[in-house]
Amino acid sequence: MIFYDCSTAPSPRRARMLIAEKGIDVEKHDVSLAKEEQLSAEFLAINSGATVPVLITETGVTLTENLGIAAYLEARFPEPALMGNTPDDKGAILMWTAIAEGQCGLAVAEALRNSNPHMKDRAIPGPENFEQIPQLAERGLRRIDLFFDKLDQRLQGRDFIATQDFSLADITAFVLVDFARVVQKRVSDTHPDLKRWYEAVKSRPSAQL
Ligand SMILES: N[C@@H](CCC(=O)N[C@@H](CS)C(=O)NCC(=O)O)C(=O)O
Fold it and tell me: Maximum CA pair distance of the chain?
């Protein structure tokens, strides 16, 4: 399997953590977003959507979305299960993964991509250019605060976000919460349960990569 990664970006980190948690061997290629390698003809031939991560499966299928990559890896390498074993757990894990993507990942992306001068005209990833809308950056910052509140509340008396076990939902939320540092949002003592969970996930070997 070939894995197109980028060490500085959150989306490939989600897949990287999942691969590490499952102990899977992949051939890794780093794509530098700083050097805009995702827009090169060579990479566009692999993913015309110009984003990482990308996983080329054992049978040669190209997967360009975290959810697709996770579903494939969970089916191909079931242990340890990271997407649930029971119908309830499977539902809860995908639900919390979607909540983290929509309410944290998109909020951080809005805040960063609509304010950073290096991302002028790159407000949305992909082959097309989009101009920045400063109001979206402000809205993104407010939404990150709301998500931190929500997750702190959810984690009261719990070790993991979706179920009794560590799962894809924890990987997704951890990576996206951690990435909020790029817009100066950091987990602090004002959110004690979020902080306890964040420190625990941060200490896992898969989070060091
Ligand atoms: N929905 C995709 C998102 C992939 C994505 O947006 N990746 C970003 C890095 S975090 C990217 O490749 N950006 C390229 C760019 O900024 O031009 C997933 O979750 O896998």
Answer: 50
pLDDT in tens, 31-45: 999 999 999 999 999
Whole-angstrom CA distances from 120 to 77, 115, 131 are 40, 8, 7
pLDDT band at 168 (very low <50, low <70, confident <90, very high): very high
d(CA 182, CA 201): 19
Distance of CA 86 from the midpoint of ligand 1 (Å) = 30
Structural domains of the chain, ranges and CATH numbers in brackets: 2-76 (3.40.30.10), 87-207 (1.20.1050.10)
Instruction: Provide DSSP, 72-122.
Output: HHHHHS-SS-SS-SSHHHHHHHHHHHHHHIIIIIHHHHHHHHTT-GGGTTB
Which mutation among 51, 65, 104, 122 tests ligand 1's pocket best, with the greatest number of atoms within 8 A of CB?
Answer: 51
